[in-house]
Amino acid sequence: MSRRRTLGTKKKVALLVSAAAVAGGGAFVMAGTSNAAQSPQTAAESTVCQGLATALGNNQRFIEGQRSAPDAQSAARIANREAVIAQIKVQQEASGCAVGESAQGSQAAAGQPSQAASASAPASQAPPAGNAASGQQVCNGSTVTLSGEAGSPAASSNQFPAGTKLKVTNLDNNKSTTVEVTSVSGSCALLNNAAFEQVREPGKFLIRRALIEKVG
């Protein structure tokens, strides 16, 4: 009888140890999840986050430009872009990115040749993008992201006037779209949501390898 009680006690202890181990494992998993939630990805760690940070920076730069040189429509444009920024921050949070991270200047820098290249190349070989002939490649080296604006497929630009037609090709999937520039932005070629959807790769908010051509 004493032997049975001893065995029973051992089984109970084993079960308690097993349960404690499971509980400990669960606590460890939860702690790991909590830490991950507290450490959102940065633009340097994720292509998705980089695209969203660039889009946020583009819109912030546009707002700064409107505030520094306002006109009759600036207030409405700023209000629209502020709404777009709010939506981008929602997307950053949903994608596990650092909310509010901005990559200002990255798009503009990518679209401009280096000073050394500009100095060595004759002016006739490197005309300003806005003066490019139809069918000529422009915005060399520029990445492409989205503005966050709704509406039918369109683009905005800081180098091409409204009415200019640009063909944007994503060289990673060979998808292309031809859009008309309808407004001003802080980069050479910035696509709105509808246009970006036509050339994007699933889940990505940035096109690293883009071919941009002026077609009209």
Quick recap:
The protein has 6 helices and 6 strands; from the N terminus they run H-H-H-H-H-E-E-E-E-E-H-E.
Mean pLDDT: 73
User: What oligomeric state do the depicted chains represent?
Assistant: single chain
Order of helices and strands: HHHHHEEEEEHE
Based on Cα principal axes, name the global outline: globular
CA-atom Rg in angstroms? 26 Å
Strand order of the largest sheet: 1-6-3-4-2-5
Amount of beta strand: 5-15%
List descriptors.
216 residues; six-stranded mixed β-sheet
Description:
By secondary structure, the chain is an alpha+beta fold. It has helices at 2-38, 47-68, 74-94, 106-110, 115-120, 193-199, and strands at residues 137-138, 155-157, 165-170, 175-184, 190-191, 210-214. The protein has a 6-stranded mixed sheet. Strand 3 (165-170) and strand 4 form a beta hairpin. The chain starts with a helix and ends with a strand. The model is unreliable at 12-36 and 105-127 (pLDDT under 50).
